[in-house]
Design goal:
Strand content: 15-25%
Shape: elongated
Structural class: alpha+beta
Helix content: 40-55%
Length: 205
């Protein structure tokens, strides 16, 4: 059985995958929402009809909320990370891989027909299968939603003599050589991190 740390890491990976699909979920809500059934009078029968007619949009909304909870969770996990900061020796932006994810997965799924229950089932089955593949292959860092939130993805090499010598770092803001980052390992070669700000120290005379 997996220990608590491994289970938490898997949940963080799943959260990142849900966040990567925020754009898809938002577009599906816009496409599938039947605004003519909005229950302005708040009658129980009208609310039930609204939920039934907009079940796909409702599922997408729930996934967006779960991704938001996961986003808050892994930011909090990073703040409580016990690893000492490491210095960046080399870094290279690989944000272009997010465009590949958008063009390869998000746009085709938006165009997926969902007129019948069978097509809706196939649609969400594809999402689950892709998620399993991305988590198993550590490709969840290709995340266009995080780019919109101000994150960037870098291939880095550090001065660490231990686990984080080199790998992929997901960083809030920009990263450059010489920066120090605090990090949270997500897998053997993928890390979530933030730049440690250096405070100016004035010598009092």
């Amino acid at each position: 059985m997996k220990d608590t740390k491994e289970q938490n890491t898997d949940l963080l990976k799943l959260s990142l995958y849900l966040i990567s699909l925020w754009i898809l979920f938002f577009m599906l809500i816009v496409l599938k929402m039947d605004i003519s059934t909005i229950p302005f009078k708040l009658k129980l029968a009208d609310i039930g009809e609204f939920l039934y007619r907009n079940s796909v949009s409702g599922i997408c909304f729930v996934f967006i909320l779960l991704g938001g909870v996961g986003y808050w969770w892994f930011k909090d996990s990073l703040n409580n990370a016990k690893q000492l900061p490491v210095e960046i020796r080399e870094c290279e932006s690989i944000n272009y891989e997010n465009l590949s994810f958008l063009a390869t997965y998000i746009i085709p799924l938006v165009c997926f027909p969902m007129e019948t229950d069978r097509e809706v089932f196939v649609m969400f089955s594809v999402i689950v299968i892709i998620g399993c593949i991305f988590v198993k292959t550590d490709l969840y860092y290709t995340n266009p939603s995080l780019i919109l939130l101000g994150f960037n993805v870098y291939r880095v090499r550090t001065n660490s003599g231990k686990e984080f010598r080199q790998g992929i770092a997901i960083i809030k803001g920009k990263l450059k050589k010489g920066d120090n980052i605090k990090y949270l390992p997500l897998s053997d070669n993928v890390y979530f991190g933030r730049v440690v700000k250096r405070e100016d120290k004035r010598v009092k005379k």
